[in-house]
Specification:
There is one protein chain. This protein is of the alpha/beta class. Among the domains are: about 1-30; about 270-315; about 315-430, PAS domain (Beta-Lactamase); about 440-595, Alpha-Beta Plaits; about 670-855, TIM Barrel (Alpha-Beta Barrel), CATH 3.20.20. About 50% of the residues lie in helices and about 25% in strands. It is built from 34 helices and 33 strands. The strands form 7 sheets. Strands 24, 25, 26, 27, 28, 29, 30, 31, 32 and 33 form a 10-stranded mixed beta sheet that branches. The N and C termini lie far apart (about 120 Å).
């Protein structure tokens, strides 16, 4: 009777006795406490390990924890190293030990359940480029876990190959990997679960040497804890074929991180199959040393298993003679070539392929058969069946006879077409913009670094251009992202058409592009002239509107230029210089070109200094609020607009046109906006105290308005100052209306509930849809002074003003005309029913004290 059969007999007998005992003592069992199970845990992640709380974790740890929860066991974790874990199990100091491979020797020492908890195999790990075959271990040192199945196997393997290899034994897998990393050992044998997960951490790689497929179990002391093993078997048997089981979920959870970090799964299956082949071949070799009578039977069985394995491998495996004719080919080769084995054997690739496929494979094969090289190479072959081209990673080695002469070639070719495609996709995602398919900032910086090196080594000078589309944001906000994306793609196409192939075009993000111009000459003057000519050509190309969905859209651009010279330091410095020049071009009125000069950097530093001063000026005497009254056509003050002035201690009066955009680009506008609103509320209180209820209009910046807590901050300021919100008018721009329409509408309605009214500033200069006027709680429209100024001289402006006034009248909206400077302008506006006039004709902006004296009484 075999050991396995004896085990089953004992298992059935004990199961029967256990059943009787359970039946006769059911009442007593029902009253007993939960079963306490001592679980040995050694560190071999991801199969078994301790988590941060000291509980069993890993694949087998999570599995037994889940079974214990279902069975009502209480797990008592006993940490130990592998050798001590085995001793503790054998001496009944623990009840269960996970991750035990079942061998005849261990079946004598321990008790096992029937259904494997996990399938695994072993693998040798080493430092990169040190091991490729078992023969490379001659004279080397291999580290193995003490009392592991790998230990016995490695000793047998080395004896079979006649290798003089030293075996080190360690008590923990980490120690083995650490020895190899520290050059104290040449290789370490380990379970592929631990090795594939942790090899990278020690700078090691998995070698092609795979061996010893094994089944892993939970083991109990011999003759004990039969009920635990039966419960484990019951759960595993129920879960093993269910793809949605808890068992499958645990495997998927622990195996996914390891699989994602390493070579594709199909590659390891190929090597795993070859490892199995090696194991079988070793077995056959050992059996051949026994009696001749059994030799034929074992060889035949091995051949059948070998053919099954090789035909199941997801790779082409073949042998060719020295004339490069096939003498063996597995099923994958036959399928690719569209031939059966009989049709293929004896033929060469010259007969099967044409063109480059035949030539390249022949050259590679001759290196193996004539020079004895081991060749590992990527090959591109076209299938004679489908005509599709595939990429293979081929490893070819010479096969020698007893005299050392090469008599054949053995090759393994793995189809990596899908893997290569995935690599190419990943490369494009890493280095190219997905919308325009232009290089991105990462690739631009790499190419710019290369260009700098060429220039520093004596090559011709180069230049960097940064191109920013003027007013792109307005188009994108008004017409939507689909139009904005189409505009960006059209710009990318124009850039490709206008520049030479050796110039690099990149998209930096948003509406900003960059260009590296090369070969511009050897002097600074020549290079600058050439760069400016190219920039001028691009600017001219951008002057033509882009047609999208039958609508023309302007795509004028501002361009900053800087030269790449031997003095250039870093790629980041060059981009910063080009960006500085770009800002200078925008400050000059947009749609212009600026060449970087050293003083521009000083301007940037001055701007940063001014921004710092602005932040410190808020709430001080440097900041003053002026008021400009607004009048009815009859000359009666009906409201006023609050305007800010900044008097710098060193630079004097600084225009809002300069410092408001600066504040808008940073967080300063939020503090400044709160301060202005707070002061406006205080002014309203002072006016009401004098009996004057004039409303005050306060400009609210887009960035301030879009803050999530803007409404709450307004409530807090009103509550603190106790100002009348009905006297507050918030002036907003059309840009706010087209950006996040839903959020804008919600905020406006919330503020309207408080009593605050809204005015659209500079109406008619933006891209907003007139339908918004019906949906939003608006009080008034402000006609931009550019329309008012030319209304009497420009018929088109006059028509625009009349249309705005007529439309506002129909919608019951008040209209304020800005920039009224002459009596003729005032009469024209009054004639067309404009209710409110504002401008130098009536009053200039004045300090609040002066405003109180002139207009701060109820009888003014």
């Amino acid at each position: 009777m075999t050991t396995r059969h004896a085990f089953h007999t004992r298992l059935i007998t004990r199961t029967f006795l256990a059943g009787i005992l359970l039946c006769t003592n059911a009442a007593a069992v029902a009253q007993t406490a939960e079963r306490e199970v001592r679980l040995g845990v050694y560190n071999n992640p991801p199969k078994i390990q301790l988590d941060a709380q000291g509980n069993a974790s890993g694949i087998l740890g999570d599995l037994i924890t889940h079974i214990a929860r279902l069975e009502g066991w209480t797990l008592q974790v006993v940490p130990c190293d592998w050798h001590n874990c085995l001793n503790a199990l054998e001496n009944d100091r623990i009840d269960l030990l996970p991750d035990v491979a079942r061998t005849p020797e261990r079946e004598k020492r321990f008790q096992f359940h029937n259904t494997p908890a996990l399938y695994s195999w072993s693998r040798i790990y080493a430092r990169p480029n040190t091991l490729n075959s078992i023969l490379d271990l001659q004279g080397k040192t291999v580290t193995v876990l003490n009392d592991s199945i790998q230990l016995d196997y490695m000793n047998t393997l080395f004896d079979s190959f006649g290798l003089d290899t030293t075996v080190n034994k360690v008590d923990a897998m980490e120690d083995g990997f650490r020895q190899v990393a520290n050059h104290q050992s040449d290789a370490v044998a380990a379970s592929h679960y631990f090795g594939d997960t942790h090899a990278d951490d020690y700078g090691l790689v998995g070698t092609p040497l795979m061996f010893q497929p094994s089944r892993l179990f939970y083991a109990a002391p011999s003759g004990k804890n039969l009920d635990l093993l039966l419960a484990i078997d019951k759960r595993l048997e129920a879960w093993r074929h269910d793809p949605d089981s808890d068992y499958t979920a645990i495997l998927r959870h622990w195996q996914a991180p390891s699989l994602q970090r390493h070579t594709p799964v199909w590659f390891w299956w190929v090597l795993g199959s070859l490892g199995t082949l090696l194991t079988l071949s070793l077995g056959v070799s050992l059996l051949l040393r026994s009696q001749v009578a059994r030799q034929t039977r074992h060889l035949k069985a091995s051949e059948e298993r070998l053919n099954t394995i090789l035909d199941s491998a997801d790779a082409q495996i073949y042998i060719k003679d020295t004339q490069l004719r096939y003498t063996y080919a597995n099923r994958q080769v036959c399928t690719f070539l569209g031939l059966n084995t009989r049709q293929l054997l004896g033929r060469s690739n010259d007969e099967l392929f044409s063109g480059n496929s035949a030539t390249s494979t022949r050259e590679t094969d001759l290196r193996v058969t004539r020079q004895g090289e081991r060749v590992a190479i990527e090959e591109t072959l076209t299938s004679p069946v489908t005509g599709e081209t595939s990429t293979f990673f081929s490893v070819k080695i010479p096969l020698r006879n007893d005299r050392g002469a090469i008599e054949a070639l053995c090759g393994i070719s793995t189809d990596i077409t899908a893997h290569k495609a995935a690599q190419q996709t990943a490369h494009r995602l890493a280095y190219y913009d997905t919308l325009t398919e232009l290089p991105n900032r990462r690739l631009l910086l790499e190419r710019l670094q290369t260009t700098m090196l060429q220039v520093q080594q004596g090559g011709e000078l180069a230049a960097v251009l940064i191109i920013n589309l003027d007013h792109f944001k307005r188009i994108n906000d008004a017409r939507g992202h689909s139009v904005g994306d189409a505009l960006l793609c059209s710009v990318a196409h124009r850039l490709r058409s206008s520049l030479s192939p050796h110039d690099l075009i990149a998209r930096l993000g948003g509406d900003e592009f960059a260009v590296i111009l090369q070969y511009l000459g050897r002097t600074t003057d020549t290079a600058a002239l050439q760069a400016l000519r190219v920039a001028g050509t691009l600017q001219h190309d951008f002057s033509t509107p882009v047609i999208i969905q039958s609508q023309p859209y302007p795509c004028a651009a501002s361009i900053g230029v800087t030269l790449v010279s031997p003095a250039s330091r870093t790629a980041d410095d060059l981009l910063r210089e080009a960006d500085t020049a770009l800002h200078r071009a925008k400050e000059a009125g947009r749609n212009t070109i600026a060449l970087y000069e050293a003083h521009m950097q000083r301007d940037v530093e001055e701007r940063l200094s001014l921004e710092h001063d602005l932040s410190r000026a808020i709430g001080t005497d440097q900041m003053q609020l002026f008021i400009q009254p607004q009048f009815s056509p009859g000359g009666t003050p009906v409201s006023a607009e609050l305007l800010i002035r900044w008097t710098h201690p060193d630079h004097g009066l600084i225009s809002p046109v300069r410092f408001i955009p600066m504040a808008e680009e940073s967080e300063i506008i939020l503090r400044l906006g709160d301060w202005i609103l707070h002061r406006a509320c205080q002014m309203l209180n002072m006016l009401e105290d004098r009996g004057t209820g004039l409303p005050l209009a306060v400009n609210v910046s887009p960035r301030q308005f879009r803050q999530p807590d803007f409404v709450e901050r307004v409530r807090d300021i009103l509550a603190e100052t106790r100002a009348n919100p009905a006297l507050l008018i918030f002036e907003i721009t059309e840009g706010i209306l087209v950006h996040d329409m839903q959020g804008t509408t919600e905020r406006m309605h919330q503020l309207s509930t408080l009593g605050i009214r809204f005015s659209i500033d500079d109406f008619g200069t933006g891209y907003s849809s007139l339908s918004y006027l019906k949906r939003l709680p608006l009080y008034e429209l402000k006609i931009d002074k550019s329309f008012v100024h030319d209304a009497l001289d420009d018929p088109e402006n006059a028509v625009i003003v009349k249309l705005i006034l007529a439309m506002a009248n129909q919608l019951n909206l008040r209209v304020v005309a800005e920039g009224v400077e002459t009596r003729e302008q005032a009469d024209f506006l009054a004639q067309h029913q404009c209710q409110v006039l504002q401008g130098y004709l009536f009053a200039r902006p004045m300090p609040f004290g002066q405003f109180l004296e002139q207009f701060g009484t109820s009888h003014t």
